[in-house]
Design goal:
Elements (H helix, E strand, L loop, with lengths): L3 E5 L9 H10 L5 E5 L5 H14 L3 H20 L3 H28 L4 H8 L1 H16 L4 E3 L2 H4 L14 H7 L9 E5 L2 E3 L5 E3 L5 H11 L4 E6 L20 E3 H9 L11 H4 L5 E5 L11 E4 L10 E5 L3 E6 L9 H11 L6 E4 L3 E6 L1 H13 L7 E5 L2 E7 L2 H4 L3 H11 L4 E9 L2 E7 L3 H12 L3
Parallel strand pairs: 1-2, 1-7, 2-4, 3-4, 7-9, 8-10
Antiparallel strand pairs: 5-6, 9-10, 11-16, 12-14, 12-15, 13-14, 16-18, 17-18
Helix pairs in contact: 1-6, 2-3, 2-4, 3-4, 3-6, 4-6, 8-9, 15-16
Bound molecules: aspartic acid (ASP) and magnesium ion (MG).
The site of aspartic acid has 13 residues, from helix 9.
Length: 456
């Protein structure tokens, strides 16, 4: 029987008591599982902050490690009655906390943190939660044991901070360490480089770990346990009448994940698309003993004529390169992007016209991008301006691919709500259109689009 990969995130592991609920979920499956876990809630944030604190203060490493010890000790005491079991898990945790303290002391004394050390520190949270989750799974009768990515040989491309897995190598190596006769528990969020260092997959990266494993062992599904009712038609804080979307395609899920819908790590679908392995999004808060997906993510069905969801992000800034000839002279974009590439600045998107090139960035990169582009003399460009306080709205749905009139419905809705559209892009992704508006118009724009497409 094919295994199911089950992932429990930080939101399932908020309080120490939540660990037991996740174990009950795992026990309800009655099929062979691989379990992937995130760090306990807020632990990754503590570690990220801890890096700066440790650089600044000699006492910080000790304080950070004592705090983390307390969080995990509480979970141990609450769930593991057997003294022998508790001691053996505690020995593993102590060793890892000791290692963490050494790393934090190390960065304190050198006054800086190399990339590979940063990733090793930040990924510690998963190596603290996994042994506890494994012990609690044993308690509910599953033959669970921890398997570390470094033991599996979960190879990455070595880009620290935001690595991608080498799927071909993983497919060769992973199955032999993830036997269906046991319940392997894998700390998510990271893999290893060719030289054996740890490289993380970016925030929320345990979803991606779980997807890489699901693909490598040809799992029957990837089940993500979250604390929301799957993918929704809009953010319920802004759109109270938003609804669960029962089915989204891989492409729709990827588009939505780049925006406000924080259901998936944006790259989770990548490893699964080719083999059509479905993702099932569950809500641990609603667990009633049955395995009930809220949203299934799978291949496009081409049967939807609507926009399924609207999402937005305010984490965006634009640099606009203007000049009458930018659309007709060769090499302009290359010149502009070479400088950005050299400065290690990622361009999120590009929207061009005959007289302007709009480069979109994450907010934190905007000032640097502007400085780089102002310092380059790009031919034909006569003005370089930055645009802040904006938001990108994404209207997402397979329907956009083949239903005439959907885009005009969206613009009509925005016009009626008196939202001024600053910039748009449609067609680059067949399942999403992007609309850039002023930040203060975000909620109004989201509601207007949602109302039009989900009438009735
Ligand atoms: N613990 C990591 C984070 O908070 C990875 C994850 O939760 O998936 O980003
Ligand atoms: Mg998390």
């Amino acid at each position: 029987m094919a295994q199911v990969v089950v992932k429990f995130g930080g939101s399932n592991l908020k309080s120490p008591a939540d660990v037991e609920r996740s174990a009950r979920v795992a026990a309800a499956y009655k099929t062979p599982l691989v379990v992937v876990v995130s760090a306990f809630s807020s632990v990754t944030d503590t570690l990220i902050r801890g890096i700066d604190e440790a650089i600044g203060s000699e006492k910080a490493p000790d304080t950070i490690c004592s705090n983390l010890k307390e969080i995990h000790e509480t979970a141990l005491k609450l769930h593991i009655e057997s003294e022998t079991e508790r001691n053996s898990v505690r020995a593993v945790l102590d060793e890892r906390l000791d290692q963490l303290k050494k790393l934090l002391m190390g960065i304190h004394y050198i006054g800086a943190v190399p990339d590979f050390t940063r990733d090793q520190i930040i990924s510690t949270g998963e190596r603290l939660s996994a042994p506890i989750v494994a012990a609690v799974l044993r308690k509910v009768g599953l033959p669970a044991h921890e398997v570390l990515p470094e033991i599996m040989g979960l190879l990455t491309d070595g880009s620290f901070g935001n690595a991608a897995a080498d799927l071909a190598v993983c497919a060769e190596r992973l199955p032999s360490t993830l036997s269906p006769d046991s319940t392997p528990v894998v700390p998510g969020f990271y893999g290893v480089t060719k030289t054996g260092n740890i490289a993380i997959f970016g925030r929320g990266g345990s979803d991606y770990t779980a997807a890489v494993i699901a693909r490598s062992i040809r799992a029957s599904s990837l089940d993500l346990w979250k604390d929301v009712d799957g993918f929704l038609s809009g953010d319920p804080r802004i759109i109270p009448n938003s609804k669960t979307i029962p089915y989204v395609s891989y492409e729709e899920a990827a588009e939505l994940s780049y925006f406000g819908a924080k259901v998936l790590h944006p790259r989770t679908v990548e490893p699964l698309e080719l083999d059509h392995i479905p993702i099932r999004v569950m809500n641990v808060e609603q667990f009633d003993g049955t395995i009930k997906p809220y949203t299934i993510v799978g291949p496009a069905k081409h049967d939807s004529a609507s926009i399924k969801s609207v999402a937005a992000t305010e984490d965006v800034g634009i640099v606009r390169l203007e000049g009458p000839g930018v659309g007709s002279r060769p090499g302009i974009l290359a010149r502009a992007t070479t400088g950005l590439d050299a400065a290690g600045i990622n361009i999120s998107s590009v929207i061009t016209s005959q007289t302007s090139i709009n480069l979109l960035f994450r907010k934190r990169d905007l000032a640097r991008a502007l400085a780089v582009l102002r310092s380059e003399s790009v031919p034909s460009v006569i003005a370089v301006d930055g645009l802040e306080d904006i938001a990108i709205i994404a209207a997402v749905g397979e329907g956009l691919r083949h239903t005439p009139g959907l885009a005009s419905q969206v613009f009509g809705a925005l016009a009626s709500a008196q939202v001024n559209v600053l910039l748009t892009q449609a067609g680059a992704s067949p399942v999403a259109m992007y609309i850039i508006v002023r930040k203060e118009d975000t909620a109004k724009a989201l509601r207007a689009i949602h109302d039009t497409i989900h009438r009735g």
